[in-house]
Design a protein that fits this description.
The structure holds 3 protein chains of 3 kinds. Chain A is built from 12 helices and 14 strands. Chain A is α+β, with helices and mostly antiparallel strands. Chain A has 3 domains: about 5-55, Uridine Diphospho-n-acetylenolpyruvylglucosamine Reductase, domain 2 (2-Layer Sandwich); about 65-175, 2-Layer Sandwich (Uridine Diphospho-n-acetylenolpyruvylglucosamine Reductase, domain 3), CATH 3.30.465; about 180-295, 2-Layer Sandwich (Enolase-like, domain 1). By secondary structure, chain B is of the alpha+beta class. Chain B has 2 domains: about 10-90, Ubiquitin-like (UB roll); about 100-165, DNA polymerase, domain 1 (Orthogonal Bundle), CATH 1.10.150. Chain B is elongated and about 60 Å long. The longest helix of chain C has 28 residues, at about 530-555. In chain C, about 60% of the residues are buried. Classes of the chains: A alpha+beta, B alpha+beta, C alpha+beta. At the B-C interface, helix 2, helix 3, helix 4 and helix 5 of B face helix 1 and helix 17 of C.
Chain lengths: ~300, ~170, ~775
């Protein structure tokens, strides 16, 4: 399980990286955390002629405050997000999901953006970013563009990124006051890809009714799936038991998962419905999210 | 030791590279193939064979080393990626005839070792975890251990060993 | 020292990273090999073009089965049967392949990286044939034949009977039947297989390093295949091997090819299996489907058991040990006067089956123990009581079960105390309180279940094992074992035994293992056999060595040997410390030879003793497990709330190590029960080809376990030892399946397939709720 031969490049500026991608478009793979790419190379399921290692690009490894929220640039490691007390307070969904992602040894190297660019249908972070309505900052030599999370994940292991493009960062807006989040995953083993998982972002008005709900499932479709019917079932409710059951039933009707050796389609359908209900219920129980204190502009 | 990539005429740019790294406190300047993994570099080129290959796809953890203090799978890094970085392997914990660390002693005392193939990886993962903070409950110990696979011991001895050293002084690895 | 929890000598080098596993051995300049493996489950090789691969810079050569015609002798099955429909298994088959992953060509290059590059350049033209990937498919009418010259896919059909089972079943007041399917998986030792070889032109000796569990078996096989004398081949299992568990006890084509090429090229060659190859081509155990019938009376006495099972043998018969063990494991701890155990071993187009820890016993235990629970349910009996009423009693040993054991001897349990095992595990788990708590929890909607399972395991398999003692010139004792360890702690355990045998402190005794040049005969490490065979051999050889040393020392001290004793590294006249000699002195006289001192007649120089212990028959270890689980009906998650293992391996040499074996075995059992299944699709393509698809239990998945020990020494060897390597594994799937079905009993859900996945549990619940269980227990003529 040794990789095939390739030319290795370690650019030291974004411009250089983009030039390389442009020059070798289609024959190059980006190496960031490597936790997804290296196994593919080992199995020779990927055999690019060029590897562009972006780990030397400066200034991209720290979460940054923006006027409306946060940016996680390309080299922010999953572990850094997991361990950030600020992010745990401001965007708790990130940490809630990250503690279920593999193990610390993987999260020490794996990047947030790398997981998003890889777009595994069972991965946690794509669902999280969809639930957070995040915006992907995509760059090429020809310029930059922004892609909404919901438009970014196109298919199984496929994103809106063109071969010459790089995901430079992801922007997430602050959560409105009264928002609680939950991430529910069920995996065969601790740390495995979930058989299904659900990210919930629920905002409640002062009277306790749900005024905004984003519920996203991973593992039941080729990309993260917004569970809109379930969201509708709880809008305006106070997440009472009958609302939760209605949401569960709605999920059951609206998903069409495929089966494999590990879990049948019927099982995944039941599982994701249960997880959605549990995610919604968890947001009803947690302490209310306070909008973060002062943040740098 | 020279890389094995064949004849110079067929080499592409970026296939053979210099790297400078510090491993277990010793500085090395080496020529490597770009595709040489960190694990194979440590084992094959530096002859530090204490780090083992169990799966080569990042799951079993037998290859775990510390890069700039972080526990990582050396099978999922290229050797060139530790250029300018420092690496710690199991050989940094104790000499073959030297004084064992409290963690190593606890592993032996609690019979946390049978075939030993996974042991280096566990020691490095546990060392990194203990540097971050104490391990005080069996549940926490199992969580710390869950990133490595052992096929022999059933983990009970490791849980016990980790708890025995878990409240030790910082760096009580 | 026997019975003492001595810390292991091996640990230091393992903890400091200075152990030397096969891939660590210094073989400067060694070439590395890679094998091209069939991508098809069944195909004819029409042509192969290796020219581009051979021309790749850095490649020394590429060979196919045709190129290695000298190796075209079939590898005989390890365990056979007179009626086996055997087919040739070649090291590198030249013409046809029968499973995905079968090696068909080998590249030798300057590095593994380059060798793998070369593999990509080999072009093969295949004629793909239809494949079968289950025993059901193999036995279906008009099934494609795995081997075209055979009449069917049945490799062998073996029936064992005791009493009159058909009649007893027909006459039984109650009868129940069920079909159970048990899938197994791979051994997945953390170190994969490997073999390295070096040929010395000067001496003509071929040295082979091999991760094998049986170096002498490999040597004998190579001698056979190469038509050499065994003395020309030295096989060394390194002192450090990273786990075995059964798959490394088999002989594979790669082990024949690599040394052959080293000799051909007159240059060291090494092959280290990677994990992908390990998934494809390392032998494993797979499915058995058991159709079981049990007949019993109103009081829950088992009158008859009939088990007809299909065993997936894989593409070749590498050995019949697994299914023949299943045959005789069926009755377990019970007195069953009428038994019918019937095997259909089927060829399929998958990697051959061979022993993985437990070796065919877990499946038999599932068949028996699940039916005992069904019997209990039928009669409204507590499952523990149902077992109690049928156990062989402590005063009924030796107990003849009526079947034949795998070694051809009548299945005769030597010793044991099954009622005590059961009583002690029930007490430790607090069984009565657990049942009370179960009622309360059920009332609150929590699905709690309790499951029991027991087993009897034949250990200490013959035909023999050896141990050799030598007093070295430096005055230390060297114990040489033929058997090779993979983590069992032989260097410590056998020093303990030797210490007691000789009456000499352990610190003067050293143990080495697994090198055919140091002891000529041996069988190897598998089947939980060594403590009961190499142990007594060590005891005997050690006692002899003591006598020999004392007789020489008696000459030097002018004393009667019976007045002498060991004190430290000296031989001393008892109660007279001034009269002593060191062991080094003894060695000087008896081994090196000192001019002027000739030993008198009757005192033999050259202090070396060897013993090969041949057990009269197998010794039988036993155990009983109890599992307490909670099942989440929404997700199918199983939480093991409590687990107690009762274990009886006879005399315990090192309690620390025995517990380690039991707990380690239990982790395998968790895998078998809840996590591990090697999937193949209908065309024989493996679906479980990496750890992303195949889950090994981590520290989070293995729950804490309590151990209860019972000691019923075996009368069959002077140590009284049995075996401890597999008891943690064997009944775990059955115990957990029983517990899960118990948890789901209010719904009538049936558990008939292992491993249990959350999806299967939810499916069982759905089936029960919809009223039509896919495999309801069939209830026959109630009287």
């Amino acid at each position: 399980m040794k990789p095939g031969r390739f030319s290795y490049h370690a650019p030291t500026s974004v411009a250089e990286a983009l030039d390389l991608l442009d020059e070798h478009a289609g024959e190059a793979k980006l190496l960031a955390g490597g936790q997804s790419l290296m196994p593919l190379l080992a199995f020779r399921m990927a055999a690019p002629e060029h590897i562009v290692d972006i780990n030397r690009l400066p200034g991209l490894d720290t979460p940054e405050r923006t006027p409306s929220g946060w940016r996680l640039p390309a080299l922010v490691r999953q572990r850094a997000v997991e361990r950030s007390t600020e992010l745990a307070r401001e965007l708790p969904l990130l940490r809630q999901a990250l503690v279920q992602v593999a193990h610390p040894q993987i999260r020490n190297r794996g990047t947030v953006c790398g997981s998003l660019a890889h777009a595994d249908p069972s991965a946690e972070l794509p669902a999280v970013m969809t639930a957070l309505d995040a915006r992907m900052q995509v760059a090429a030599r020809s310029g930059e563009r922004t892609v909404a999370a919901e438009d970014f994940f196109v298919f199984h292991l496929t994103t809106a990124l063109e071969p010459e493009e790089v995901l430079l960062g992801v922007e997430i807006d602050d959560l409105p006051p009264g928002t609680r989040t939950s991430f529910q995953e069920f995996a065969t083993r601790h740390g495995d890809f979930g058989l299904a998982s659900v990210a919930a972002v629920v905002t409640r008005a002062a009277d306790g009714t749900v005024e905004r709900c984003r519920l996203v499932a991973a593992g039941v479709a080729a990309t993260p799936q917004r569970l809109r019917a379930a969201e509708d079932a709880v809008l305006g409710s106070r997440l009472e038991p009958q609302a939760l059951v209605a949401a569960e039933r709605a999920v059951h009707r609206e998903v069409s998962p495929t089966g494999d050796v590990h879990a049948s389609a019927d099982y995944r359908r039941q599982l994701v419905s249960v997880l959605a209900r549990r995610a919604l219920a968890a947001t009803a129980q947690d302490a209310p999210h306070e909008k973060g204190s002062e943040h740098a502009a | 030791m020279l890389p094995d990539t064949p004849r110079p005429e067929s080499l592409q740019p970026g296939e053979v590279l210099w790297l400078t790294t510090t491993v277990n406190g010793t500085r090395y300047e080496e020529v490597v193939d770009s595709r040489l993994t960190l694990a194979d570099f440590l084992r094959g080129q530096l002859r530090l064979t204490g780090t083992h290959l169990g799966c080569e796809h990042g799951v079993c953890g037998a290859c775990t080393v510390l890069v700039d203090g972080d526990a990582v799978r050396s099978c999922l890094m290229l050797a060139v990626q530790v250029d300018g970085r420092s690496v710690e392997t199991v050989e940094s914990l104790a000499e073959p005839d030297g004084e064992l660390t409290p963690l190593q002693e606890a592993f032996s005392r609690c019979h946390a070792v049978q075939c030993g193939f996974c042991t280096s990886g566990f020691l490095m993962s546990a060392t990194a975890a203990l540097r971050e903070g104490p391990v005080t409950t069996p549940g926490q110990a199992r969580e710390v251990l869950s990133g490595n696979i052992c096929r022999c011991t059933g983990y009970a001895g490791m849980v016990q060993a980790l708890l025995e050293v878990g409240e030790g002084a910082p760096g009580g690895e | 020292m026997i019975g003492s929890p001595v810390l292991r000598r091996e640990d230091r080098r393992l903890l400091t990273g200075s152990a030397v596993y096969l891939d660590d051995i210094e073989l400067p300049g060694a070439y590395e090999a890679a094998f091209l493996r069939s991508p098809h489950a069944s195909a004819r090789i029409l042509s192969m073009d290796t020219s581009a691969a051979a021309a790749l810079p850095g490649v020394l050569g590429v060979w196919s089965g045709h190129d290695l015609a000298q190796l075209a002798k079939p590898i005989p099955p390890k365990v056979t049967h007179p009626e086996l429909q055997d087919v040739p298994r070649y090291s590198l088959p030249p013409e046809s392949v029968h499973f995905v992953g079968e090696p068909i060509a080998v590249v030798v290059a300057v590095s593994r990286y380059v060798a793998e590059d070369a593999l990509d350049l080999i072009e093969v033209d295949y004629e793909v044939r239809p494949a079968v990937s289950s025993t059901a498919a193999a036995l279906a009418p008009d099934a494609p034949l795995v081997h075209e010259h055979l009449e069917s896919n049945v490799a062998v059909h073996i029936t064992q009977r005791a009493g009159h089972p058909d009649q007893a079943l027909a006459e039984a007041p109650h009868r129940l039947s069920e079909t159970f399917t048990v899938h197994r998986g791979g051994g997945h030792s953390m170190e994969t297989r490997g073999v390295a070889a070096r040929y010395d032109v000067g001496t003509g000796q071929l040295t082979v390093w091999d991760t094998t569990q049986s170096p002498h078996y490999v040597r004998n096989m190579l001698a056979f295949l190469y038509e050499l004398s065994e003395d020309e081949i030295r096989v060394i299992a390194p002192a450090d091997v990273g786990g075995g568990f059964g798959p490394k006890a088999q002989f594979y084509g790669e082990e024949a090819v690599i040394p052959f090429l080293a000799r051909l090229l007159q240059h060291p060659v090494k092959w280290i299996e990677d994990r992908r190859e390990n998934f494809l081509a390392t032998m494993m155990e797979r499915g058995q489907t058991h159709r079981v019938e049990i007949g019993f009376d109103d009081d829950g006495h088992i009158l008859a058991v009939k088990d007809v099972f299909e065993h997936d043998q894989g593409a070749y018969c590498a050995g019949l040990q697994v299914p023949t063990i299943t045959l005789s494991t069926l009755p377990g701890q019970y007195k069953i006067p009428n038994i019918h155990s019937e095997l259909y071993a089927c060829y399929t187009n998958m990697v051959p089956t061979s022993s993985v820890r437990g070796a065919g016993r877990p499946q038999a235990v599932v068949a028996m123990e699940r039916m005992v629970d069904r019997m209990a349910e039928h009669l409204g009996l507590d499952p523990a009581e149902a077992r109690r009423r049928n156990l062989v009693q402590a005063d009924e040993f030796p107990y003849r079960a009526g079947l034949t054991f795998r070694d051809g001897s009548p299945l005769t349990y030597d010793s044991g105390n099954f009622p005590e095992l059961l009583a002690r595990v029930l007490e430790r788990v607090g069984y009565d309180e657990q049942r009370e708590q179960q009622k309360e929890l059920r009332a609150r909607g929590v699905l709690r279940g309790i499951g029991l399972a027991g087993y009897v395991e034949g250990c200490g398999l013959g035909p023999y094992e050896g141990s050799r003692f030598r007093l070295k010139n430096d005055g230390t004792i060297l114990v040489t074992l033929a058997a090779a360890p993979q983590g069992q702690g032989y260097e410590t355990v056998y020093a303990q035994i030797a210490s007691d045998a000789m009456g000499l402190d352990m610190e003067h005794i050293w143990v080495r293992t697994g090198d055919t040049s140091t002891i000529p005969f041996g069988q190897g490490t598998f089947a939980s056999r060594n403590t009961a065979t190499a142990g007594p051999a060590t005891l005997q050889a050690g006692q002899l060595m003591r006598e020999r040393i004392l007789s020489v020392a008696g000459v030097l001290l002018k004393a009667d040997p019976s007045d002498l004793t060991f004190v430290g590294n000296r031989v001393q006249v008892k109660d007279d410390p001034d009269r002593s000699v060191t062991l080094k002195d003894v060695a000087q006289v008896a081994n090196v030879g000192r001019h002027g001192i000739t030993l008198p007649p009757g005192v033999v120089p050259g202090l070396e003793t060897t013993s090969y212990f041949a057990p009269e028959r197998a010794a039988y270890a036993s155990g009983t497990h109890v599992a307490v689980v909670d099942v989440d009906p929404e997700t199918g998650a199983v939480d093991i709330v409590a687990y107690v293992i009762g274990h009886d391996c006879g005399t315990v040499v090192n309690p620390l190590l025995v517990d380690g074996q039991v707990l380690g075995g239990f982790a395998h059992g968790i895998g078998n029960a809840l996590l591990e299944q090697s999937f193949y699709d209908s065309s024989g393509q493996p679906q479980s080809t990496s750890y992303l698809d195949y889950s090994l239990p981590s520290a989070v998945e293995v729950p804490p376990v309590e151990l209860v020990h019972v000691h019923s020494p075996s009368p069959l060897n002077p140590l009284g030892a049995k075996g401890a390597g597999e008891g943690g594994t064997i009944p775990a799937p059955a115990a957990i399946a029983n517990a899960v079905e118990d948890a789901l009993r209010p719904f009538g859900a049936r558990i008939t397939e292992l491993p249990l996945s959350p999806a299967k549990i939810v499916a069982a619940l759905s089936a029960a709720r919809s009223g039509a269980g896919p495999s309801d227990t069939t209830i026959h003529g109630e009287v």
